[in-house]
Description:
Layout: E1 6-11, H1 17-28, E2 31-33, H2 36-45, H3 49-55, H4 63-71, H5 82-100, E3 103-106, H6 110-113, E4 120-126, H7 129-140, H8 144-165, E5 178-181, H9 182-204
Helix pairs in contact: 1-9, 2-5, 3-4, 7-8
Amino acid sequence: MKENTIITIGRQFGSGGHEVGEKLAKELGIKFYDKELIKIMAKKSGLCEKVLESYDEKPMNSLLYSIVMDVYPSVMYTGPTIDQQIYQACYDTIRHVADEGSCVIVGRSADYVLRDHKNLISVFIHADNAFRAERVKKEYQLPDDKIQDMLVKTDKKRASYYNFQSEKKWGMAASYNLCLDTSILGIDGAVKLLIDYIGYVNQKR
């Protein structure tokens, strides 16, 4: 694999994108980032993890200010807005981990943040509704009548976040180098195909 290859993974909720990314990173022997980014962001920016978790992959809104004021009730902030601080912290952290070496980054519009990276490979993981519903039911122990609502709302938040941050459209094939359907390939099949694809791309570059 080429030095400093960055694989970014966007994903539908319940499609197994996190698991695909984690297994891919393990197979390639490189670092993996998903929720781990929040701890790095907090350390680098000085922002509270609770605030960062509340914002994570959600569209910006005025509720964020209320969350911050609950955490820091005595602070009268006059600099950049909280939204701006968090976006900058996320941007800086993604750039930082990419500069450190080859890695897999899940979500957070990382493909757009790193769009000028010469060894970027952007991937979108999706699956049919039944596959995703079954995974979500198993993971979150939800009743059947709550699963579809969670699928729709989570994807809507991810799409809103991505579409706001970037000039592309979340989930559209043209926004990524490769789109994979885990309901057809399975998790391991998607990982295997990605390894082959990454090897092919790196040979061509």
